[in-house]
Amino acid sequence: MERARIRVFDTTLRDGEQSPGCSMNVHEKLRLARQLDRVGVDIIEAGFPIASDGDFEAVQAIAAALRRPTIAGLARACSPDIERAWQALKGAAFPRIHVFLATSDIHLKYKLRISRQQCLEQARDSVRLAKSLCTDVEFSPEDATRTDPEFLCQVLEAVVEAGATTLNIPDTVGYTMPAEFNELIHSIRRRVRGIEGVTISAHCHNDLGLAVANSLAAIAAGARQVECTINGIGERAGNASLEEIVMAMRVRPDLHPYDTGVVSSQLFPASQLLSEITGVPVQPNKAIIGRNAFAHEAGIHQDGVLKNPLTYEIMTPQSVGVPDSKLVLGKHSGRHALSLRCEQLGYQFERRELDEIYRRFVLLADQIKNVQDHHLLQLIRESCGRSQRIPPAHVEEVTIAMAAAAGQSRISDYSSKPIALPNDFPTHELPRNSMAEHHCEQEDYLWGV
Ligand SMILES: [Mn+2]
């Protein structure tokens, strides 16, 4: 089946940067933009050129450095903004001017203090100006989801006539619901003359936790561009999270038959780079790229995952770029390295317990070259039920992949083969019933960064 292509418009460097604590300098923005290029986004909104000299320089530098993606710059609906944006963008291989103007009565009355008629004219005139500078023009009616739909369609029709090539429908305040937003996009497609010649886009905020759901609802209704950010950063509760939208489509192509140009294995590196640059950590339970996104704490879950990852996983850590754990523990590894690795995996042992684990570890290391995390975890489970688990928060920045899925890179690679110690590993030395005893009560777990 032919699948529709969704253009991914990343606004991490613009809307994302507007979130508290997330401002970036030119050098940092350029670094992140290069990673966004590796992620494969179609459009990078590089900044708001009139906002500051730093923003201007960043947009200019990104436009000069990245020749594949479209580079967008934001402008209010007035000539100084639009001209400044164009100055920053004109060196881009594919420049786009993104003009916005609020259209809801509450914004018109209290913020802009203009009438609907003035709004309509200002929107049309500013898009006309932008179009005289740049063929690729996006228009956003700010606060679209709280705008009278009739008036919204009038404005959209006017800007299409003036030359807009993308119509972005922002849920600026994170107010809409999936069914409602879906219907809004449908009604725009029905009512706006000339709509078939332009791309409809969605820009959703997460104030009610629905940004991704609303974005997917818009796509289902015919939107073919989605605006989003890495880690879901952005104003207030943030924007729709790029990684969540992309992986929702990848994991459920039956319900979301769309393609993007995103290289999913670059998602985790992008998330890490953004956190590193801004110093803003990702919440541990964040979908797709959070430290616990691939963790299996409950013993019964872990047991299932070890037997077949599909029991509790709908995608592999590797598919989103969570690195494989390369535990290089061999027979030459010392007790200290072993103890450290155990700690990284969440276990602290008394000296005598560690001695016992070390003894078994050496036996195993004699038989296999590299003792990997899943070997070690199994060994720990079988050796010691009294291990004291330490909370993952004590382990900072340890990149441990979901060990059970090590070496498996695609869903189709999953097999039902349990990961096991070598056949000749001397399990007869283990206390009888040790597996049975700890099967249900074990507290061991793995986590995926
Ligand atoms: Mn926004």
How many domains make up the 3D coordinates? 2
Radius of gyration: 26 Å
Any guess at the CATH architecture of the largest domain? Answer: Alpha-Beta Barrel
Per DSSP, the total helix count is: 15
Total number of beta strands: 12
* CA-based shape: elongated
Strand proportion, as a percent range, falls in 5-15%
What is the CATH superfamily label of the largest domain?
Answer: Aldolase class I
Note the topology.
Blueprint: E1 4-5, E2 7-10, H1 26-39, E3 43-47, H2 53-65, E4 70-76, H3 79-89, E5 95-102, H4 105-112, H5 116-133, E6 137-142, H6 149-162, E7 166-171, H7 178-191, E8 199-204, H8 211-220, E9 225-228, H9 242-251, E10 258-259, H10 267-278, H11 299-307, H12 335-344, E11 347-348, H13 351-367, H14 373-383, E12 388-389, H15 434-439
Parallel strand pairs: 1-10, 2-3, 2-9, 3-4, 4-5, 5-6, 6-7, 7-8, 8-9
Antiparallel strand pairs: 11-12
Helix pairs in contact: 1-2, 1-10, 2-3, 3-5, 5-6, 7-8, 13-14
The structure holds manganese (II) ion.
Describe the structure.
With 449 residues, this protein is of the alpha/beta class. The protein folds into 2 domains: 4-278, Aldolase class I (TIM Barrel, Alpha-Beta Barrel); 299-439, no CATH class. The chain is built from 15 helices and 12 strands. The chain has helices at residues 26-39, 53-65, 79-89, 105-112, 116-133, 149-162, 178-191, 211-220, 242-251, 267-278, 299-307, 335-344, 351-367, 373-383, 434-439, and strands at 4-5, 7-10, 43-47, 70-76, 95-102, 137-142, 166-171, 199-204, 225-228, 258-259, 347-348, 388-389. Strands 2-3-4-5-6-7-8-9 form an 8-stranded parallel barrel, surrounded by 7 helices. It is elongated, with a radius of gyration of 26 Å. Manganese (II) ion (MN) is lined by residues 15, 170, 172, 203, 205, 234-235.
